[in-house]
Design a protein that fits this description.
Layout (H helix, E strand, L loop, with lengths): L1 E6 L2 E6 L2 H15 L12 E7 L5 E10 L13 E2 L10 E9 L7 H17 L4 E9 L7 H10 L9 E2 L4 E2 L1 H4 L6 H7 L2 H8 L3 E2 L3 E4 L4 E9 L5 H11 L1
Parallel strand pairs: 6-7
Antiparallel strand pairs: 1-2, 2-3, 3-4, 4-6, 5-8, 7-12, 9-11, 10-12, 11-12
């Protein structure tokens, strides 16, 4: 068990112990409303953000370290055709199952520490690409049309890395949406995790997967570490420091 980061009452730590994974699974079941464990849980590094005094887990996520040729082993590859990224030359990490306790979902200190822990992990492993699935709650698209229009207009993946359609049920928003986004509505409906990805220069797939099991719409999201703006890097590393 390795302590990753500590700020005030909160601490972030990495563990693969059975007890800690059970805590993460418990929070994930509460946040997602289902048992979402899978075989990747045994392969990932699990990060827990917890109250040091009470031991309550407030946020968790998992990190799967990969090389491009191993892209098919990722969780995301179940839903997206990612052969283009097999050519990516450098260490990569898939961020998955990010969730916060419902009572702490709007606590900025929890989210800052979570991103600080991710930054520490990325720096320690010299990661060059951070990726994963960013989820919108529910499977109805109507509430998110401005968000999807904004993603189409500003944040589509470079063609050389663009994920292709693989899942049977998808919303091809980049092909069907013609409206200009209302930016305020777009950002208001944007999931916090995806919003942070975008602030780091992240890019997304041109379609969203309709995931009935998880009751979400999700887009593949990637962040090339070298492309993160310097000011954003300083903010992230200030949490670590």
């Amino acid at each position: 068990m390795t302590l990753v980061l500590q700020k005030g009452r909160l601490r972030a730590r990495q563990s693969k112990t059975t007890e800690d994974i059970a805590k993460a699974l418990s929070l994930r079941a509460l946040a997602f409303g289902c048992d979402d464990r899978d075989a990747l849980d045994d392969l990932c590094a699990h990060i827990l953000i917890e109250n040091e005094v009470s031991g309550e887990v407030l946020c968790c996520f998992r990190m799967l370290s990969l090389q491009g040729k191993e892209m098919a082993k990722s969780y995301s590859a179940q839903f997206y055709e990612l052969s283009a990224l097999e050519r990516f030359d450098g260490p990569m990490v898939e961020l998955g199952r990010f969730c916060t306790h419902p009572c702490h979902s709007n606590d900025p200190d929890v989210l800052r520490l979570a991103w600080g822990a991710m930054t520490a992990f990325v720096d320690a492993h010299q990661v060059e690409l951070l990726f994963g699935c960013s989820s919108f709650a529910g499977t109805e698209t109507a509430s998110y049309l401005d968000s999807f229009a904004m993603l189409k207009e500003r944040h589509l993946a470079p063609k050389r890395w663009l994920p292709r359609v693989k899942a049977p049920n998808v919303f091809r928003y980049a092909a069907v949406l013609r409206n200009r986004p209302d930016m305020k509505r777009a950002m208001r409906a944007m999931p916090p995790l995806l919003r942070t990805y975008l602030l780091m220069g992240g890019w997304v797939s041109d379609h969203a997967v309709v995931d009935e099991k998880m009751n979400t719409l999700h887009v593949f999201t990637g962040v090339e570490i070298s492309a993160i703006p310097d000011a954003r890097k300083r903010l992230l590393r200030a949490v670590v420091g």
